Structures are given as structure tokens and as C-alpha cells.
Amino acid sequence: MSYEAKNPVQATQRSLDIIEALRELDGARLTKIAEALDLPDSTVHSHLSTLMERGYVVKEDGIYRISLQFLDLGEYARSIRKVYSVAKPEIDELAEETGEVVSLLIEEAGRGVILYTENGPGAVPLDITPGKCVQLHASALGKAILAYLPDDRVETIIERHGLPAYTDQTVTDRETLLTQLAETRERSIAFDREERVIGSSSVAAPIRSNDGRVIGSVGLSGPTSHLSEERIDSNLLETLHDVTNIVELKLTYS
Q1: Of 36, 51, 145, 166, whose CB has the highest number of CB atoms within 10 Å?
Q2: CATH 3.30.450.40: does it fit domain 79-253?
Q3: This prediction's pTM
């Protein structure tokens, strides 16, 4: 779950706040960053200078930006997840076959993290990009994972992160969510009908280890008109299950 430091270092927190602000602002001048964080210019400048010295921030024409050094760290963090290298070729093939956006999600600290995404031919681009964090209750990918976590872990995630609404369709009631998770376990398939983004729906299946632990999930996402109940037929569900089964076998025997 999310970890709370007993003795958090304020300087570290501020540096990370600045990095996150640079991400949100898409780069900015010193004064704008300081205003966004309600900190003195001098404090922000000291942190930025240190981050520049270490290569994590660059400055061009007075604009501070996150450096590509984070790309190296992100690629490393992803590469050590065995499920990424195993699932990637299967996801690529599924995207090509279905023409939709296909993604791999894992759970980390009670939230979902997109590990990989491939757009099929003609797929409508979505905000599902590697590294993006999502609340588990608001997507098929997330519910496919939540359904196979221990009950006490699910309760802790709900307590920690809540069940915030993203659209009118988001499940924000604990009992309703638990009912959906039970249904997901019965069919090994999770659905999302515009619960995170209006106009976008998804279907996902879990990836599990040979001892039943959930490792991640693979799902298709696209416009609701593409992934209507009529289109999500038994053949599509079987294809999705085939992909997760192959990934599970490869993880077991590789």
C-alpha cells in the first residue's frame, strides 16, 4: 500500500513536488513554479539548481523542464517487471488483430500503473500511456486486478484511496464495487462502461500466477461504440483469455 514515512525529509518532498509541478506545467519559468507551489523563488531556485546539477532538470531559454534522465529510470523500472517482456508481443498481436488500444496494467501501492500500451490499426488514441497511474476501481483493467487481491488488501486500498467519481458511471459505492468484483471472479472478465472517461469503455482479463496470485491485467479500450455489449462477443472474450493464458504459461515456464 502507499507508504507513509515516519520522519519525512522536507527537502526531498519539496524536490519531488517541484518535479511533479514541472510535469503538470509542461515546463515553466521559476516564478510560475514558485507560484504553483506557494514557495519563495529562492527556495525553488535552490532545488532546481541541485536537480540541474544531477541532470534531472534542464533549462532552455529560461524554461525549466524535466530531463530525459527520467526516461532511463522509467525504462529500467519497467524492464525489471518480467510480465512486461513476456506480455508485450502478445499485446502487440492482440492490438493488430482487434484494431483497438490494448494495455498491460499492474498494481503498485494500491493504484494501477500502465506498463505497456499498443494501438491497433485505426484505434482511437486514448490517455492510456506507459507510466500513467489510475484508480483501480474505475476501469476494467483495475477491477480485473482488484477481483483477485485478498479481501483485506481490497479493503485497505478502498480506505487509503477511496472511490472517487470520474464520471456519472463510476462505481463509488463499496458494496456495489464488491458485487462487481465477485462477478468478475465468476467470469474472469471485467468491464468498464464509461466509468473513467465519458465515451470510452474497456474489457480486461487478469494475469495470474500458477498459485493464483494476480500479477496484472490485459485489456482492450476504445470508444463505447467500438466496445459495445453487442461487439464484445464470446469470440473476443475467448481471444482475450487466450492472450492472458499464454502470458501466464510463459511466466510459469520461462
Answers
A1: 145
A2: yes
A3: 0.86
